[in-house]
Amino acid sequence: MKNMRKLFYIGWALVVLVAACTKVADLPFYKQGNSVVLSSNFTSVTSTLADSNRNVISFSWTNPQHGTDSSNYKYVLSIDSAGRNFSREVTKTVMGIRNTAITGRELNNILLNYGFALGRTHSLDVKVTSSYGNNNEKLESNVLRITVSPFDDPAVLVTQNTTLSPTLAVSNNPGNTFSWTRSFVGYTGDITYTLQYDSAGKNFTSPRDFAVGLNRLNVTLTNFEMNETALNDGVVGGTTGRIEYRVRAVTAQGAVSFSNTVSVLINTYVPILRFYMPGGYQSATGNGNNWDPTTAPELIRDVRPEAMNKLYYMYIYLPANSEFKVTQGRDWAINYGGTNSNLIQNGANFSVSTAGVYRISIDRANMKYDIREG
Q1: How far apart are CA 169 and CA 167, in angstroms?
Q2: N or C: which end of the chain has fewer CB within 10 A?
Q3: Could you read off the pLDDT of 44-69 as tens digits, one per residue?
Q4: Domains of the chain (ranges plus CATH)?
Q5: What's the rounded Cα separation, in Å, for the pair 54 and 93?
């Protein structure tokens, strides 16, 4: 029995000795990778709207030889305005492949977000950063300088009607709806749209604006507003004239684009325009609230045919040092002031220095006014 016990202890000691002498295998070693060399198929790109969905520039780079399977390599392509050290970079990530491409519209939206002017040449810096999939061992490539030019990507405008015959009886009803597609498709910032109009054939040499707002893609004008677009461009009330319309789009960075042109033939009517005189005198004279067009007294219309919608006047008592303006309608959208007898839209306040009864008159045809004690 004692011999058996000795043999057991001897055997156990041998096992411990062998285990202690066994060498542990070295951990795997991954060598440092190499910075890639970036190249492109073009160094200058001038794309157009027709290139929107086509690859306009391609990039490729050498193998970084990271110590792992190449399918796990991560590549980040960085683009920024030249000389900015990639402080506002736009990135594109690819895994396991050593090339990528950018379409015309992708590139254009990058340029628009940088505020680059349409049709002008600008420079971009491009680099690629390689790494493991977990972002370890990041290695940057050389920097390429690319010359680019953003293109116009206008809205497509349509009109509900091509002929319109508004009347005074339905002047407040919807007259015509203009709709359009978004300008600069894929651009992520705000776009301000304005409907512009001008007489047909003038090529918008002196367009008038109808504000639409941010990111809206349609606007409906009343019969009165459609009639006014014709009258404002010289069509005589009661006659027919053709007016052209287009949409002006402006990005948050200032790029400007114009849509196609549509035209509407308008059979105009003679509207009745009403004018009011809000001012700081109202409360003191029992004429409503100060500077409130909704409670201001109305000017008298000269009803002679040759003076229709042109000449207006009123007699009113005004305290000393009163200031006032004239509004078309009971809001401030269209208001008039002026100096030295010249009537000016959005002009300076009219004023009188002494108290008394005054005759106030305006001449819309010749943009004149007259204030006299009467």
Answers
A1: 5
A2: N
A3: 999 999 999 999 999 999 999 988 88
A4: 38-149 (2.60.40.10), 157-267 (2.60.40.10), 275-373 (2.60.40.3620)
A5: 19
